[in-house]
Amino acid sequence: MAISLAGYTLRPRWWALLLALGFAAATVSLGNWQSGRALEKQALADRSREGERSAALRLGPEPVSAVPLAQRRLVARGEFVPERTVLLDYKIHRGRLGYYVVTPLRIEGSAMHVLVNRGWVAAGARREDLPEVRTPMGTLSIEGVAQLRAERALDAGGGTPSGRVWQNLSFDAYRAWSGLQIQPLLIEQRSVADDGLARDWPEPDFGIDKHRSYAMQWYLMAAFSILLFIVLSVRRDRPAAP
After folding, report:
1. Span between the terminal Cα atoms of the chain, in Å
2. Cβ(7)–Cβ(236) under 8 Å?
3. In terms of Cα–Cα distance, which of 157, 152, 135 is closest to 186?
């Protein structure tokens, strides 16, 4: 098959055509997958904003399913257990190194607890100088947003840490270390408390732009493969002999 136009002829080789079409189809499929992931993440971000604007749900002592509560506003009433506080290391706030302070709240009238990320505190001048954290005592109500995502505050790191400073925190590791019964979520505290901790939380990053960028790269690769096939298949016609 040959197509001539304005002194040029397209003479595609079938094997090259099939290769170009196969590569283009594969990269378009990958681009569509990334576009779908971007739409899923956008829907998750929309649900997150809606959940944070909705009325707070009361978290009781009954074990809950965590996924339906993700990014929902929760309120829990009980007492902090300060001796089971852990500090999540290497947390940056406004360019300064520090810790997230995570303290279990014993839910009123029960042995059930929920972990509360109470906020950020600056690290000392030396690593061994741990910050003193004031913990409100007595029965109080804590309001915040339910967090399940590892990169915000929790990470499913292996092993059981020791001491108060942890690099990562998983629910299973914390249960093993503390011996406490805890709900399978963490409350990112939004209610005001006189404890000196910073609670201007960063907006969650759902990676929407990353997926869109990857999708565009795959689509461009598909277009480039077709363009390259055309360029390599075109030949300039030789002028007819006089």
Report:
1. 27
2. yes
3. 152
Cα 200 to its chain centre, rounded Å, is 18
- Please, what's the b/e burial string for 124-163 (b: 16 or more CB within 10 A of its CB; e: otherwise)? eeeeeeeeebeeeeeeeebbbbbbbbeebbbeeeeeebee
CB 75, CB 143: distance < 8 Å: yes
Q: Are 155 and 91 in contact (CB under 8 A)?
A: no
Contact 124, 131 (CB under 8 A): yes
Q: What is the pLDDT of residues 216-230, one digit of tens each?
A: 999 999 999 999 888
Tell me, rounded to whole angstroms, the distance of Cα 207 from its chain centroid. Answer: 7
pLDDT of residue 161: 59
Alpha-carbon torsion angle 88, 90, 91, 94, nearest 10: 150
Q: What is the pLDDT, as a whole number, of residue 155?
A: 46
Average pLDDT, the chain: 85
**In the predicted model, is pLDDT for residue 152 greater than 70?**
no
Report which secondary-structure segment, H or E, holds 178: helix 171-178
Q: What would the mean pLDDT of 56-65 be, rounded to a whole number?
A: 93
- The percentage of the chain sitting over the pLDDT mark of 90, rounded to a whole number, equals 56
Distances (CA, A) of 231 to 4, 28, 199: 14, 20, 58
The answer to whether 195 and 133 are in contact (CB under 8 A) is yes
Angle between helices 208-233 and 14-53 (to 10 degrees): 170
Distance CA 77, CA 138 (A): 10
Three-state DSSP at 181 gives strand
